[in-house]
Amino acid sequence: MSNQTGSGRAVVLGASITGLFAARALSDFFKSVVVLDADMFGAGTTPRKAVPQGNHIHAILPPAYQALKELMPEVIEKLLAGGAHLFDGGRDIKWTHLGHWLVQGETGRTFIGATRPFFESHLRQHVESLDNVEILSGHRFLEWKIDSSHETVLGVLAQGPREQVDLDSELTVDARGSGSKLLKELITLGFDEPFTEVVEVDLTYTSCLFQAPDFSPDWNLLLMDPDAPRKWTGGVIERVEADRWIVTQWGYFGARAPIDDVGFKDFAESLDEPDIADFLRLAEPVSECHQYRIPKCYLHRFDQLKRFPDRLVAMGDAVCKLNPIYGQGMTKAAKEGVFLWESLSKFRENGSDLSGFSGRFRKEMGNVGANWAWQLTSGSDLAYPQTKGKRPFNLSFINWYVGRLFARAETRLEVRKALMDAMALVNPPESIMQPHLILRALGL
Ligand SMILES: Cc1cc2nc3c(=O)[nH]c(=O)nc-3n(C[C@H](O)[C@H](O)[C@H](O)COP(=O)(O)OP(=O)(O)OC[C@H]3O[C@@H](n4cnc5c(N)ncnc54)[C@H](O)[C@@H]3O)c2cc1C
Questions:
Q1: Residue of the nearest CA to atom 44 in ligand 1?
Q2: Atom of ligand 1 nearest to the CA of 15
Protein backbone atom coordinates (compact mmCIF):
# COMPACT_ATOMS: atom_id res chain seq x y z
CA MET A 1 0.00 0.00 0.00
CA SER A 2 1.38 3.41 -0.89
CA ASN A 3 1.81 6.50 1.22
CA GLN A 4 -0.60 9.37 0.78
CA THR A 5 -0.32 12.96 1.89
CA GLY A 6 -1.87 13.32 5.28
CA SER A 7 -2.98 16.22 7.39
CA GLY A 8 -3.19 16.81 11.12
CA ARG A 9 -2.61 14.39 13.94
CA ALA A 10 -4.17 11.09 14.94
CA VAL A 11 -3.81 9.61 18.42
CA VAL A 12 -3.93 5.94 19.35
CA LEU A 13 -4.43 4.78 22.94
CA GLY A 14 -2.59 1.47 23.43
CA ALA A 15 0.53 0.25 21.62
CA SER A 16 -0.34 -3.42 21.57
CA ILE A 17 -1.42 -5.45 18.52
CA THR A 18 -4.56 -3.42 17.78
CA GLY A 19 -2.90 -0.06 18.40
CA LEU A 20 0.10 -0.94 16.25
CA PHE A 21 -1.95 -2.07 13.26
CA ALA A 22 -4.15 1.02 13.66
CA ALA A 23 -1.13 3.34 13.87
CA ARG A 24 0.35 1.82 10.73
CA ALA A 25 -2.94 2.39 8.88
CA LEU A 26 -3.27 5.97 10.15
CA SER A 27 0.32 6.82 9.20
CA ASP A 28 -0.72 6.99 5.52
CA PHE A 29 -3.42 9.58 6.16
CA PHE A 30 -2.18 11.91 8.89
CA LYS A 31 0.89 14.12 9.20
CA SER A 32 1.65 12.60 12.56
CA VAL A 33 0.42 9.68 14.63
CA VAL A 34 1.06 9.58 18.37
CA VAL A 35 0.59 6.25 20.15
CA LEU A 36 0.29 6.39 23.94
CA ASP A 37 0.74 3.36 26.16
CA ALA A 38 0.72 3.20 29.94
CA ASP A 39 3.24 0.35 29.96
CA MET A 40 7.04 0.69 29.71
CA PHE A 41 8.53 -1.39 26.89
CA GLY A 42 11.77 -3.26 27.40
CA ALA A 43 14.18 -3.78 24.53
CA GLY A 44 13.83 -7.58 24.47
CA THR A 45 11.09 -9.96 23.53
CA THR A 46 9.91 -11.08 26.96
CA PRO A 47 6.24 -10.78 27.95
CA ARG A 48 5.41 -7.36 29.34
CA LYS A 49 3.50 -6.49 32.48
CA ALA A 50 0.38 -4.99 30.89
CA VAL A 51 -0.05 -7.95 28.52
CA PRO A 52 0.18 -11.04 30.77
CA GLN A 53 -1.46 -13.17 28.06
CA GLY A 54 1.90 -12.83 26.27
CA ASN A 55 3.13 -15.89 28.17
CA HIS A 56 0.62 -18.06 26.33
CA ILE A 57 0.34 -19.42 22.83
CA HIS A 58 -0.73 -16.80 20.30
CA ALA A 59 -1.66 -18.35 16.97
CA ILE A 60 -1.26 -15.97 14.03
CA LEU A 61 -3.89 -16.87 11.44
CA PRO A 62 -3.88 -16.39 7.64
CA PRO A 63 -5.69 -13.01 7.56
CA ALA A 64 -3.05 -11.60 9.94
CA TYR A 65 -0.33 -12.83 7.58
CA GLN A 66 -2.22 -11.19 4.73
CA ALA A 67 -2.61 -7.94 6.69
CA LEU A 68 1.14 -7.89 7.29
CA LYS A 69 1.77 -8.45 3.59
CA GLU A 70 -0.45 -5.48 2.78
CA LEU A 71 0.52 -3.03 5.51
CA MET A 72 4.04 -4.00 6.62
CA PRO A 73 5.67 -6.77 4.58
CA GLU A 74 9.06 -5.89 6.12
CA VAL A 75 7.81 -7.36 9.40
CA ILE A 76 7.35 -10.80 7.83
CA GLU A 77 10.99 -10.75 6.69
CA LYS A 78 12.17 -9.72 10.16
CA LEU A 79 10.05 -12.39 11.87
CA LEU A 80 11.46 -15.08 9.60
CA ALA A 81 15.02 -13.82 10.00
CA GLY A 82 14.50 -14.04 13.76
CA GLY A 83 13.41 -17.68 13.55
CA ALA A 84 9.60 -17.55 13.23
CA HIS A 85 7.96 -20.18 11.00
CA LEU A 86 5.50 -19.94 8.15
CA PHE A 87 3.33 -22.99 7.76
CA ASP A 88 0.30 -24.26 5.90
CA GLY A 89 -2.98 -24.40 7.83
CA GLY A 90 -3.95 -27.79 6.39
CA ARG A 91 -0.69 -29.62 5.77
CA ASP A 92 1.21 -28.51 8.87
CA ILE A 93 -1.50 -28.47 11.52
CA LYS A 94 -2.49 -31.74 13.14
CA TRP A 95 -5.95 -31.04 14.49
CA THR A 96 -8.54 -32.96 16.43
CA HIS A 97 -11.90 -31.32 17.05
CA LEU A 98 -15.08 -32.83 18.53
CA GLY A 99 -13.40 -36.22 18.60
CA HIS A 100 -12.31 -36.26 14.93
CA TRP A 101 -8.73 -36.16 13.62
CA LEU A 102 -8.93 -34.04 10.48
CA VAL A 103 -7.27 -34.99 7.22
CA GLN A 104 -4.01 -33.10 6.57
CA GLY A 105 -3.19 -31.57 3.19
CA GLU A 106 -2.11 -28.36 1.45
CA THR A 107 -4.61 -25.49 1.74
CA GLY A 108 -2.52 -22.48 0.70
CA ARG A 109 -3.41 -20.73 3.96
CA THR A 110 -0.35 -19.36 5.75
CA PHE A 111 0.03 -19.28 9.53
CA ILE A 112 2.98 -17.72 11.40
CA GLY A 113 4.54 -19.59 14.32
CA ALA A 114 6.04 -17.17 16.87
CA THR A 115 5.59 -16.20 20.50
CA ARG A 116 3.39 -13.23 21.24
CA PRO A 117 6.16 -10.95 22.68
CA PHE A 118 8.41 -11.70 19.70
CA PHE A 119 5.61 -10.87 17.25
CA GLU A 120 4.55 -7.74 19.11
CA SER A 121 8.09 -6.39 19.49
CA HIS A 122 8.71 -6.72 15.74
CA LEU A 123 5.46 -4.92 14.98
CA ARG A 124 6.37 -2.19 17.44
CA GLN A 125 9.90 -1.74 16.06
CA HIS A 126 8.49 -1.36 12.58
CA VAL A 127 5.74 1.09 13.49
CA GLU A 128 8.20 3.08 15.60
CA SER A 129 10.55 3.33 12.60
CA LEU A 130 7.92 5.14 10.50
CA ASP A 131 8.88 8.79 10.11
CA ASN A 132 5.55 10.22 11.21
CA VAL A 133 4.74 7.84 14.11
CA GLU A 134 5.81 8.38 17.70
CA ILE A 135 5.19 5.82 20.44
CA LEU A 136 5.14 7.26 23.96
CA SER A 137 5.48 4.53 26.56
CA GLY A 138 4.69 5.21 30.21
CA HIS A 139 1.83 7.51 29.16
CA ARG A 140 -1.49 6.68 30.78
CA PHE A 141 -4.71 8.06 29.31
CA LEU A 142 -6.40 10.53 31.69
CA GLU A 143 -9.34 12.13 29.94
CA TRP A 144 -11.03 13.01 26.68
CA LYS A 145 -11.02 16.50 25.26
CA ILE A 146 -14.45 17.08 23.76
CA ASP A 147 -16.11 20.08 22.10
CA SER A 148 -18.57 22.28 23.99
CA SER A 149 -21.61 20.54 22.48
CA HIS A 150 -20.26 17.15 23.60
CA GLU A 151 -20.37 15.67 20.10
CA THR A 152 -16.77 15.51 18.89
CA VAL A 153 -13.60 14.22 20.52
CA LEU A 154 -10.86 16.80 20.04
CA GLY A 155 -7.96 15.01 21.69
CA VAL A 156 -6.74 13.51 24.95
CA LEU A 157 -4.92 14.32 28.16
CA ALA A 158 -2.41 11.73 29.35
CA GLN A 159 -0.06 11.35 32.29
CA GLY A 160 3.56 10.80 31.27
CA PRO A 161 6.41 9.71 33.58
CA ARG A 162 7.18 13.34 34.44
CA GLU A 163 4.34 15.52 33.20
CA GLN A 164 0.92 15.60 31.66
CA VAL A 165 0.62 15.77 27.89
CA ASP A 166 -2.22 17.53 26.10
CA LEU A 167 -2.74 16.30 22.54
CA ASP A 168 -5.16 17.61 19.94
CA SER A 169 -6.30 14.94 17.54
CA GLU A 170 -8.33 14.74 14.34
CA LEU A 171 -9.07 11.09 14.93
CA THR A 172 -8.52 9.08 18.11
CA VAL A 173 -8.46 5.29 18.36
CA ASP A 174 -9.19 3.50 21.62
CA ALA A 175 -7.02 0.36 21.54
CA ARG A 176 -6.67 -0.02 25.31
CA GLY A 177 -7.74 -3.65 25.17
CA SER A 178 -9.90 -5.17 27.86
CA GLY A 179 -8.55 -2.50 30.25
CA SER A 180 -10.41 0.22 28.33
CA LYS A 181 -12.85 2.21 30.46
CA LEU A 182 -14.69 3.57 27.44
CA LEU A 183 -18.09 2.33 28.62
CA LYS A 184 -17.92 4.41 31.82
CA GLU A 185 -16.28 7.33 30.01
CA LEU A 186 -19.15 7.46 27.50
CA ILE A 187 -21.60 7.97 30.36
CA THR A 188 -19.44 10.75 31.83
CA LEU A 189 -19.41 12.42 28.41
CA GLY A 190 -23.21 12.28 28.19
CA PHE A 191 -23.61 9.23 25.93
CA ASP A 192 -25.35 5.92 26.53
CA GLU A 193 -23.52 2.74 27.46
CA PRO A 194 -23.77 0.07 24.75
CA PHE A 195 -25.46 -3.28 25.24
CA THR A 196 -22.85 -5.95 25.96
CA GLU A 197 -23.18 -9.61 24.97
CA VAL A 198 -21.42 -11.83 27.49
CA VAL A 199 -20.50 -15.51 27.51
CA GLU A 200 -19.10 -16.77 30.81
CA VAL A 201 -16.59 -19.46 29.86
CA ASP A 202 -14.57 -19.77 33.10
CA LEU A 203 -11.48 -20.91 31.19
CA THR A 204 -7.93 -21.31 32.53
CA TYR A 205 -4.79 -21.44 30.38
CA THR A 206 -1.46 -22.89 31.54
CA SER A 207 1.57 -22.51 29.27
CA CYS A 208 5.25 -23.32 29.20
CA LEU A 209 8.09 -23.15 26.62
CA PHE A 210 10.15 -26.24 25.78
CA GLN A 211 13.12 -27.40 23.76
CA ALA A 212 13.07 -30.81 22.11
CA PRO A 213 16.10 -31.19 19.82
CA ASP A 214 15.26 -34.77 18.78
CA PHE A 215 11.63 -34.02 17.99
CA SER A 216 10.81 -33.57 14.28
CA PRO A 217 7.10 -34.19 13.66
CA ASP A 218 5.35 -33.61 10.33
CA TRP A 219 3.44 -30.66 11.79
CA ASN A 220 4.19 -27.21 13.21
CA LEU A 221 1.07 -27.00 15.31
CA LEU A 222 -0.86 -29.74 17.07
CA LEU A 223 -4.32 -28.70 18.24
CA MET A 224 -6.41 -30.85 20.55
CA ASP A 225 -9.78 -29.17 20.89
CA PRO A 226 -12.05 -30.99 23.29
CA ASP A 227 -14.94 -33.20 22.30
CA ALA A 228 -17.57 -30.77 23.64
CA PRO A 229 -19.74 -31.09 25.68
CA ARG A 230 -18.38 -34.46 26.88
CA LYS A 231 -14.91 -33.10 27.61
CA TRP A 232 -13.77 -29.60 28.64
CA THR A 233 -10.00 -29.84 28.62
CA GLY A 234 -7.63 -29.51 25.69
CA GLY A 235 -4.21 -28.38 24.59
CA VAL A 236 -1.93 -27.22 21.84
CA ILE A 237 1.76 -27.37 20.87
CA GLU A 238 3.30 -24.88 18.46
CA ARG A 239 6.78 -24.56 16.99
CA VAL A 240 8.03 -21.01 17.67
CA GLU A 241 11.22 -18.98 17.18
CA ALA A 242 14.58 -19.99 18.71
CA ASP A 243 13.98 -23.72 18.21
CA ARG A 244 11.37 -23.83 20.93
CA TRP A 245 7.87 -25.20 21.32
CA ILE A 246 5.12 -23.57 23.32
CA VAL A 247 2.64 -25.88 25.04
CA THR A 248 -0.65 -24.54 26.34
CA GLN A 249 -3.20 -26.70 28.14
CA TRP A 250 -6.60 -25.42 29.13
CA GLY A 251 -9.69 -26.33 31.06
CA TYR A 252 -13.16 -24.87 31.39
CA PHE A 253 -15.25 -24.64 34.58
CA GLY A 254 -12.50 -24.88 37.16
CA ALA A 255 -10.40 -27.53 35.38
CA ARG A 256 -6.82 -26.30 34.97
CA ALA A 257 -3.37 -27.67 34.27
CA PRO A 258 -1.12 -27.07 37.29
CA ILE A 259 2.01 -24.95 36.85
CA ASP A 260 4.40 -27.51 38.33
CA ASP A 261 6.19 -29.96 36.06
CA VAL A 262 4.54 -33.13 37.40
CA GLY A 263 1.07 -31.63 37.48
CA PHE A 264 1.45 -30.23 33.95
CA LYS A 265 2.43 -33.70 32.68
CA ASP A 266 -0.36 -35.44 34.60
CA PHE A 267 -2.88 -33.07 33.05
CA ALA A 268 -1.60 -34.02 29.57
CA GLU A 269 -2.07 -37.71 30.45
CA SER A 270 -5.73 -36.98 31.23
CA LEU A 271 -6.49 -35.65 27.73
CA ASP A 272 -8.30 -37.88 25.22
CA GLU A 273 -5.24 -38.25 22.95
CA PRO A 274 -1.64 -39.03 24.03
CA ASP A 275 0.21 -36.55 21.76
CA ILE A 276 0.93 -33.81 24.31
CA ALA A 277 1.88 -36.31 27.03
CA ASP A 278 4.24 -38.04 24.55
CA PHE A 279 5.84 -34.70 23.66
CA LEU A 280 6.33 -33.72 27.31
CA ARG A 281 8.20 -36.99 27.97
CA LEU A 282 10.97 -36.00 25.55
CA ALA A 283 10.95 -32.19 25.95
CA GLU A 284 12.90 -29.97 28.38
CA PRO A 285 11.14 -26.93 29.87
CA VAL A 286 12.98 -23.66 29.17
CA SER A 287 10.58 -21.31 30.96
CA GLU A 288 8.40 -21.25 34.02
CA CYS A 289 4.77 -22.28 33.56
CA HIS A 290 2.25 -19.44 33.64
CA GLN A 291 -1.47 -19.50 34.29
CA TYR A 292 -4.15 -17.08 33.04
CA ARG A 293 -7.85 -17.15 33.82
CA ILE A 294 -10.51 -15.93 31.40
CA PRO A 295 -13.81 -15.72 33.31
CA LYS A 296 -15.80 -14.30 30.41
CA CYS A 297 -15.80 -13.08 26.83
CA TYR A 298 -17.75 -10.05 25.64
CA LEU A 299 -18.86 -8.05 22.64
CA HIS A 300 -19.74 -4.40 23.30
CA ARG A 301 -22.34 -3.41 20.71
CA PHE A 302 -20.98 0.10 20.00
CA ASP A 303 -22.38 -0.48 16.51
CA GLN A 304 -25.93 -0.33 17.87
CA LEU A 305 -25.60 2.97 19.72
CA LYS A 306 -27.63 5.84 18.29
CA ARG A 307 -25.12 8.45 19.50
CA PHE A 308 -21.36 8.12 19.81
CA PRO A 309 -18.61 10.77 19.89
CA ASP A 310 -17.46 11.80 16.44
CA ARG A 311 -13.72 11.45 15.60
CA LEU A 312 -13.39 8.51 18.00
CA VAL A 313 -13.19 4.83 17.11
CA ALA A 314 -12.76 1.80 19.36
CA MET A 315 -11.02 -1.32 18.07
CA GLY A 316 -9.65 -4.69 19.19
CA ASP A 317 -10.26 -6.08 22.66
CA ALA A 318 -11.68 -2.70 23.71
CA VAL A 319 -14.71 -3.79 21.67
CA CYS A 320 -14.64 -7.58 21.75
CA LYS A 321 -12.72 -10.07 23.86
CA LEU A 322 -12.88 -13.57 22.42
CA ASN A 323 -12.26 -17.01 23.86
CA PRO A 324 -8.51 -17.48 23.15
CA ILE A 325 -8.72 -21.19 22.34
CA TYR A 326 -9.85 -20.18 18.84
CA GLY A 327 -6.78 -17.94 18.44
CA GLN A 328 -8.56 -15.07 16.70
CA GLY A 329 -7.92 -11.89 18.76
CA MET A 330 -4.77 -10.60 17.06
CA THR A 331 -6.05 -11.62 13.63
CA LYS A 332 -9.25 -9.70 14.26
CA ALA A 333 -7.08 -6.70 15.26
CA ALA A 334 -5.02 -7.02 12.07
CA LYS A 335 -8.15 -7.19 9.90
CA GLU A 336 -9.54 -4.13 11.66
CA GLY A 337 -6.28 -2.31 10.90
CA VAL A 338 -6.64 -3.08 7.19
CA PHE A 339 -10.30 -2.04 7.34
CA LEU A 340 -9.30 1.27 8.95
CA TRP A 341 -6.85 1.85 6.09
CA GLU A 342 -9.48 1.02 3.46
CA SER A 343 -12.16 3.14 5.13
CA LEU A 344 -9.89 6.18 5.41
CA SER A 345 -8.83 5.68 1.84
CA LYS A 346 -12.46 5.75 0.62
CA PHE A 347 -13.21 8.82 2.70
CA ARG A 348 -10.23 10.69 1.29
CA GLU A 349 -11.03 9.59 -2.30
CA ASN A 350 -14.49 11.09 -1.92
CA GLY A 351 -12.86 14.32 -0.72
CA SER A 352 -14.77 14.12 2.58
CA ASP A 353 -13.33 15.51 5.77
CA LEU A 354 -13.53 13.17 8.74
CA SER A 355 -16.96 14.29 9.95
CA GLY A 356 -19.14 11.21 10.19
CA PHE A 357 -16.21 8.85 9.61
CA SER A 358 -16.24 7.25 13.03
CA GLY A 359 -20.01 6.64 12.90
CA ARG A 360 -19.76 4.67 9.69
CA PHE A 361 -16.62 2.84 10.79
CA ARG A 362 -18.22 1.84 14.09
CA LYS A 363 -21.25 0.37 12.34
CA GLU A 364 -19.25 -1.59 9.74
CA MET A 365 -16.13 -2.71 11.60
CA GLY A 366 -17.72 -5.78 13.23
CA ASN A 367 -18.30 -7.31 9.82
CA VAL A 368 -14.59 -7.83 9.21
CA GLY A 369 -14.06 -10.06 12.24
CA ALA A 370 -15.61 -9.41 15.65
CA ASN A 371 -19.18 -10.34 14.73
CA TRP A 372 -18.05 -13.40 12.76
CA ALA A 373 -15.81 -14.62 15.53
CA TRP A 374 -18.39 -13.92 18.20
CA GLN A 375 -21.07 -15.91 16.40
CA LEU A 376 -18.82 -18.94 15.90
CA THR A 377 -17.02 -19.07 19.21
CA SER A 378 -19.93 -18.27 21.48
CA GLY A 379 -21.93 -20.96 19.65
CA SER A 380 -19.23 -23.55 20.39
CA ASP A 381 -18.81 -22.46 24.02
CA LEU A 382 -22.55 -22.51 24.64
CA ALA A 383 -22.60 -26.20 23.65
CA TYR A 384 -21.52 -26.78 27.27
CA PRO A 385 -24.53 -26.66 29.61
CA GLN A 386 -22.20 -25.08 32.23
CA THR A 387 -21.48 -22.02 30.04
CA LYS A 388 -23.55 -18.98 30.98
CA GLY A 389 -24.86 -16.84 28.13
CA LYS A 390 -27.84 -16.27 25.87
CA ARG A 391 -28.43 -19.32 23.68
CA PRO A 392 -29.75 -18.64 20.16
CA PHE A 393 -32.87 -20.67 19.29
CA ASN A 394 -31.02 -22.63 16.57
CA LEU A 395 -27.92 -23.44 18.67
CA SER A 396 -28.52 -27.22 18.81
CA PHE A 397 -29.05 -27.41 15.07
CA ILE A 398 -25.95 -25.33 14.26
CA ASN A 399 -23.77 -27.36 16.61
CA TRP A 400 -25.17 -30.61 15.16
CA TYR A 401 -24.41 -29.36 11.64
CA VAL A 402 -20.87 -28.23 12.54
CA GLY A 403 -20.28 -31.61 14.22
CA ARG A 404 -21.34 -33.38 11.01
CA LEU A 405 -18.91 -31.25 9.01
CA PHE A 406 -16.04 -32.06 11.37
CA ALA A 407 -16.84 -35.75 10.97
CA ARG A 408 -16.63 -35.36 7.18
CA ALA A 409 -13.36 -33.40 7.51
CA GLU A 410 -11.70 -36.63 8.65
CA THR A 411 -11.40 -37.53 4.98
CA ARG A 412 -12.41 -34.46 2.95
CA LEU A 413 -9.78 -31.73 2.70
CA GLU A 414 -12.21 -29.22 1.16
CA VAL A 415 -14.44 -29.57 4.24
CA ARG A 416 -11.51 -29.09 6.60
CA LYS A 417 -10.47 -26.02 4.61
CA ALA A 418 -13.99 -24.53 4.74
CA LEU A 419 -14.18 -25.06 8.51
CA MET A 420 -10.70 -23.63 9.03
CA ASP A 421 -11.48 -20.62 6.82
CA ALA A 422 -14.55 -19.80 8.89
CA MET A 423 -12.80 -20.30 12.24
CA ALA A 424 -9.68 -18.40 11.11
CA LEU A 425 -11.74 -15.37 9.93
CA VAL A 426 -10.83 -15.89 6.27
CA ASN A 427 -14.53 -16.22 5.42
CA PRO A 428 -17.72 -15.34 7.33
CA PRO A 429 -19.51 -18.05 9.35
CA GLU A 430 -22.26 -18.46 6.74
CA SER A 431 -19.59 -19.73 4.31
CA ILE A 432 -19.96 -23.18 5.90
CA MET A 433 -23.59 -23.24 4.74
CA GLN A 434 -22.76 -23.49 1.02
CA PRO A 435 -24.77 -26.18 -0.82
CA HIS A 436 -21.82 -28.50 -1.43
CA LEU A 437 -20.96 -28.43 2.28
CA ILE A 438 -24.58 -29.11 3.28
CA LEU A 439 -24.45 -32.18 1.04
CA ARG A 440 -21.21 -33.28 2.69
CA ALA A 441 -22.72 -32.80 6.14
CA LEU A 442 -25.61 -35.03 5.06
CA GLY A 443 -23.10 -37.66 3.98
CA LEU A 444 -23.72 -37.13 0.25
C1 LIG B 1 -4.57 -16.31 27.41
C2 LIG B 1 -4.80 -15.66 26.07
C3 LIG B 1 -4.40 -16.29 24.91
C4 LIG B 1 -4.62 -15.70 23.67
N5 LIG B 1 -4.29 -16.37 22.54
C6 LIG B 1 -4.47 -15.78 21.34
C7 LIG B 1 -4.10 -16.44 20.15
O8 LIG B 1 -3.71 -17.61 20.13
N9 LIG B 1 -4.21 -15.75 18.97
C10 LIG B 1 -4.71 -14.49 18.93
O11 LIG B 1 -4.79 -13.90 17.86
N12 LIG B 1 -5.13 -13.85 20.04
C13 LIG B 1 -5.02 -14.46 21.24
N14 LIG B 1 -5.42 -13.81 22.37
C15 LIG B 1 -6.05 -12.49 22.25
C16 LIG B 1 -5.01 -11.38 22.10
O17 LIG B 1 -4.10 -11.40 23.19
C18 LIG B 1 -5.71 -10.01 22.00
O19 LIG B 1 -6.84 -10.10 21.20
C20 LIG B 1 -4.72 -9.02 21.40
O21 LIG B 1 -3.72 -8.77 22.35
C22 LIG B 1 -5.31 -7.72 20.92
O23 LIG B 1 -5.50 -6.95 21.97
P24 LIG B 1 -5.43 -5.34 22.00
O25 LIG B 1 -4.25 -4.79 21.30
O26 LIG B 1 -6.77 -4.89 21.59
O27 LIG B 1 -5.26 -5.17 23.58
P28 LIG B 1 -4.09 -5.62 24.54
O29 LIG B 1 -3.15 -6.55 23.89
O30 LIG B 1 -4.71 -6.03 25.81
O31 LIG B 1 -3.31 -4.25 24.77
C32 LIG B 1 -3.88 -3.10 25.35
C33 LIG B 1 -2.79 -2.05 25.45
O34 LIG B 1 -3.36 -0.85 25.96
C35 LIG B 1 -2.52 -0.32 26.97
N36 LIG B 1 -3.37 0.43 27.90
C37 LIG B 1 -4.37 -0.06 28.69
N38 LIG B 1 -4.92 0.94 29.40
C39 LIG B 1 -4.27 2.09 29.05
C40 LIG B 1 -4.40 3.45 29.43
N41 LIG B 1 -5.31 3.85 30.34
N42 LIG B 1 -3.57 4.37 28.85
C43 LIG B 1 -2.65 3.98 27.93
N44 LIG B 1 -2.48 2.70 27.55
C45 LIG B 1 -3.29 1.76 28.08
C46 LIG B 1 -1.87 -1.54 27.61
O47 LIG B 1 -0.66 -1.20 28.25
C48 LIG B 1 -1.66 -2.46 26.40
O49 LIG B 1 -0.42 -2.24 25.78
C50 LIG B 1 -5.25 -14.43 23.61
C51 LIG B 1 -5.66 -13.79 24.77
C52 LIG B 1 -5.46 -14.41 25.99
C53 LIG B 1 -5.97 -13.73 27.23
A1: 37
A2: 49
